[in-house]
Amino acid sequence: MMRPTRLLLTSAVVLVIAGLVASPADAEWDLSWPTLRPGIAGGQEEKELGLSLGYEISEGYARLISDPGSFQWSVRARFESSGSYVWAEGLNPAPWSTVLAFDAALNMFRPAVNPDFVPGELPDESRRVPAENHGRLRLGLQVGHETDQSFEVHQVIGGLVAGYANIRTVGWAGLLPTVLLFGDGVLMVSRVRDDEVLAGADETYARARLEASLKHHFGEYLPTSSLKPLALYLDFRYSREFSRGEAWEETDRHKALYVAGGIGYAFQEPVFWCLRGVAAGVSYGRIPPVEKDSTVALVYVDLGAP
């Protein structure tokens, strides 16, 4: 008899693939050029500076499976990859990550309608129905690969993701964070580092993650129009590994916390064709499989095709 977890995963895969392939509703590609982020990182503990170069790739495909006039159900497939290299390894708290995700989402927004004839009113009268935007609920599957910038530890992940994505960035509603919960199965496929504790840890284990993030355009409240693109960024991540052995847990490396905050400015039109924005921020902690906590200040620019 099929186990409940395996049955759930199999059912989710079948539903997502069926929606992507067979849905007669509208389909949409979300394709973009990669983003490069050259910058400078500085550390508090070792008082050092290092050049950094980050990248981000996000490509997707979605199909609507409900009436576009109401809140829309959709199924999506996304490929996402990100990472950075810092010429001072202790100043890079984030891993290199590549993920292929499949999910179903309830998009809780609809465009404004004008005109909209209201029953009981005169035929030539109309009113405008304002747009609604309450974010997106998400449930899906993902598989991927993780490593640190030394490329000494490689691991494959697969599991479930569920949560709420807030796509509003202004007003009180824009202060509501995006919150995602992950349940991963992790297989460590290689480890070059000579670490006795790591060598004794189980290669296959479970991991739970909580991520909360916020982007808010506080520049909208400033009197100068040129400052309206200013945005606040906040990021919180917590992860915990299970069943990796007592020696590993005694080092507290089975738990990881990462918090970050910063300010960014996005140009309304790219400068010199590819300069899309600038940002500065501070972070503390680490994101596995990175194993050392650090406090890092980072200043960078966003480069990408218009």
Describe the structure.
With 306 residues, this protein is mainly beta. It has a single domain (4-110, 131-303), classed as Outer membrane phospholipase (ompla), Chain C (Beta Barrel), CATH 2.40.230. Helices cover 9% and strands 57% of the residues. It has helices at residues 4-22, 196-200, 246-250, and strands spanning 27-30, 35-43, 49-64, 72-86, 96-110, 113-116, 127-129, 132-147, 153-165, 178-191, 204-216, 230-242, 255-271, 275-285, 294-303. It has a twelve-stranded antiparallel beta barrel with strand order 2-3-4-5-8-9-10-11-12-13-14-15. The protein has a two-stranded antiparallel ribbon with strand order 6-7. A hairpin with an 8-residue loop joins strand 14 and strand 15. It starts with a helix and ends with a strand.
What CATH architecture label applies?
Answer: Beta Barrel
Query: Describe the biggest sheet?
Result: 12 strands, antiparallel, barrel
Helix content: under 10%
Number of domains: 1
CATH class category name: Mainly Beta
Give the DSSP E fraction (strand runs of 2 or more residues).
Answer: over 45%
Structural class by SSE content: mainly beta
Low-confidence parts: 1-5, 115-129
Average pLDDT, all residues: 83
Describe the global form. globular
